[in-house]
Amino acid sequence: MRLFRSFATVSGFVALSRVLGFTRDILIADVLGAKEVADAFFVAFRFPNMFRNLFAEGAFNVSFVPVFSAILEQRGRAEAQVFAELVLAGLLSILVLFLFAVEAAMPWFLAIVAPGFIDNPETLALAVEYTRLTFPYLLFAALGAMLSGVLNSLYRFAAAAAAPIALNVVMIAVLLIGWASQEEAGFSLSLGIACGGVFQFLILVWACHQAGIDLHLPRPRLSPDVKRMLRLMVPAAIGAGAAQINLLVGTALASIVGVGAISHLYYAERVTWLPVGIVGVAMGTALLPRVARLLKAGEADAALNAQNRALELGLLLGMPAMAALIVIPLPILTVLFVRGAFTMTDALVSAGALAAFAIGVPAYVSVRVLAPGFFARQDTKTPVKVAFVAVAVNVLASIALMGPFGVLGLAFANAVAAWTNAALLTVLLHRRGYLSFDARLKRRAPRIVLASALMAAALFVAAPLVAPLLSATLVVKIAALAALIGGGVVVYGLAVLATRAATLADMRAALSRS
């Protein structure tokens, strides 16, 4: 099926980007560790990404893609390109004004985002300096997200999925130079983020040209199509804003927990989002334009089947990821990060947060698959309401758990909020007749859970056997972790085949069909 081929394309490049991202994070841990400079840098890194998720990958993407896809399907490429050019001109104008305003008010913004820094003026000053350097990344990332929406709507997923690799390559290059102090390294990394955004944007401009789309900059105006997109975008922006509150809550409360808490959360979250990115983000990216165009073509049954298969694949890959991250978080973090400025004590704290985050992996993936069921129907209001409920759950749980459990409590609260979000989206889609689980999904879901449990049991037994090797040389540690994870993959694969949670024929068919 085209959906699975599209997913494979996106997930392949996302996987490469995540591997490079891990290489980057390993080097960051080595250079910055989990102390004041690292906390300041991670706030600076998160700040533009928060707005990127809000404007670009959040509200903008889920409102632009369905409208662009509908115009493309019903009126042709020429009119779709005119719409895209008007959106590009308007987006650029707004972002430039926003960029200057935020740069001027940066100290006040960071006092809200990281209130714990107020008692540490040196860390606050570093965070302000670093964030002013990273924030221009938002401009290029947002414009790039719009170009990615164009490419995805044309079923050209490769370049859009590959473009973020540029950011990781630039940051790795900066880290490999070597620096006299952590402060200098943080400064150079922050500048590298902005440069990476420029390269990312240029890659997408070239990809659009290759696809026959050369966008120009007309005078911004509100055409009927742009107005329709904005009507969808306002509630989506509120919903995306609600999702970003979860990130703000975690960062703000972590800054209060103590020095290093922001860094510990960051390292744990990065490992968690490897499977979520490869599976959930990739599947959601491939699914939204597919379902939108099927619905516009009147093929509701095909759209429903696509969503069922996406949920099935999400479970097939997300459940074992959850199981592994819960059972062996410390070996993973030890091999990845324990060197240089990142200590074993840091790994122990981050491991608890990783296990807590991991509980939410299937939910994070499911949300990415379920949300297109609303967005493809140009319903951006319902996910907003659900997102605010999830935010409320996260805030209350975080406040309740941060005192007794610290970083672990903040991570667990995030997982609880994710499951709340996924459950409510599922119920509402079902009630409105947009989603019903077919016989194949009902039959295979419990088998996937069983296969994941068998893999978790095998990892639990094997982990103590390789534990002594994790204090050896780097090569031995990597080999030990690879053997542990590889053994888990083999056990899971055999369990999947034995329980018929999936078959070899399914995999061959998914890869061979056009």
Detailed description of the structure:
With 514 residues, the chain is mainly α. It contains 21 helices and no strands. The chain has helices at residues 2-32, 36-75, 77-104, 106-113, 121-134, 137-153, 158-162, 165-177, 182-210, 224-257, 261-296, 300-327, 329-337, 344-358, 361-370, 372-375, 381-405, 407-431, 439-466, 474-499, 504-512. Helix 1 runs antiparallel to helix 11 (261-296). The N and C termini lie close together (6 Å).
Give the biggest beta sheet: none
Overall geometry: globular
The number of E-state strands comes to: 0
Helix tally equals 21
Low-pLDDT segments, ≥5 res: 510-514
How much β-strand is present in the residues? under 5%
Supply Rg. Answer: 22 Å
Q: H/E element string?
A: HHHHHHHHHHHHHHHHHHHHH
State mean pLDDT (0 to 100 scale): 82
Task: List the SSEs and their pairings.
Blueprint: H1 2-32, H2 36-75, H3 77-104, H4 106-113, H5 121-134, H6 137-153, H7 158-162, H8 165-177, H9 182-210, H10 224-257, H11 261-296, H12 300-327, H13 329-337, H14 344-358, H15 361-370, H16 372-375, H17 381-405, H18 407-431, H19 439-466, H20 474-499, H21 504-512
Helix pairs in contact: 1-8, 1-11, 2-3, 2-5, 2-6, 2-9, 2-10, 2-11, 3-6, 4-5, 5-9, 6-9, 8-9, 10-17, 10-18, 11-12, 11-14, 11-15, 12-14, 12-15, 12-19, 13-14, 14-18, 15-18, 17-18, 19-20
